[in-house]
Design brief:
The longest helix has 21 residues. The chain is 38% helix and 17% strand. Helix 2 runs antiparallel to helix 5. By secondary structure, it is an alpha+beta fold. The chain has a domain of 120 residues: NADH Oxidase, CATH 3.40.109.10. Strands 1, 2, 3, 4 and 5 form a five-stranded antiparallel sheet that branches. It has six helices and five strands.
């Protein structure tokens, strides 16, 4: 796929199905992540891959987080949070693995680098004709979930990437004028 097509046509896909991407495709996606900008070459990323029964295990972790946040959650909310991890054949948690008090690279740069790694992964999935969506929500900021995923110190979940075959049609992409976003100082 041409880079211009990739960059201007990437779209988030909420409905994903199919099989787990093959090993070569997954390696390509991870290698793309590892090319993200990385001030100080500290590689402030960690990835947790969930597929098969691992998605159900993640759903149970999300459930425990929900119950800690909202012990009165009704049955519909409980079922929804348990089932949300079954929306794609693959989920990758992208974590900013933060080196606290780094002499040259502040925490914000480390988190942004992990975000850039996530974006590279989404573009790589799209380049391999897969769909993806970057999800956050309460589960990305939940201390129970973060503890069970092994986050430490200032580590942060920057998102959960849901990856699979696109199911359904593409949503229309909005047109934007660069004039609405670009300020030029000449």
């Amino acid at each position: 796929m041409q880079a211009d097509t990739l960059l201007l046509n990437r779209n988030s896909h909420p409905k994903l199905a199919g099989e787990l991407p093959d090993a070569d495709t997954l390696e390509f996606i991870y290698q793309a992540a590892l090319r993200a900008p990385d001030h100080g070459c500290i590689r402030p990323w960690r990835f947790i891959e969930f597929s098969g029964a691992g998605r159900e295990r993640l759903g149970e972790i999300f459930f425990r987080g929900l119950m800690a946040r909202n012990p009165q959650a009704d049955e519909a909310q409980q079922n929804k949070v348990r089932m949300m991890t079954l929306r794609a054949p693959l989920i990758i948690a992208v974590i900013a693995k933060v080196t606290e008090d780094h002499p040259k690279v502040p925490v914000i740069e480390q988190v942004l680098s992990a975000g850039a790694a996530a974006q590279n992964m989404m573009l790589a999935a799209y380049a391999k004709n897969l769909g993806a969506i970057w999800r956050t929500g309460d589960v990305a900021f939940d201390p129970v979930v973060n503890q069970e995923l092994g986050l430490e110190g200032e580590d942060q979940v920057v998102g959960y990437l849901y990856i699979g075959d696109v199911e359904g049609r593409n949503k229309p992409l909005p047109e934007h004028s660069t004039e609405d976003f670009v300020e030029r100082w000449s």
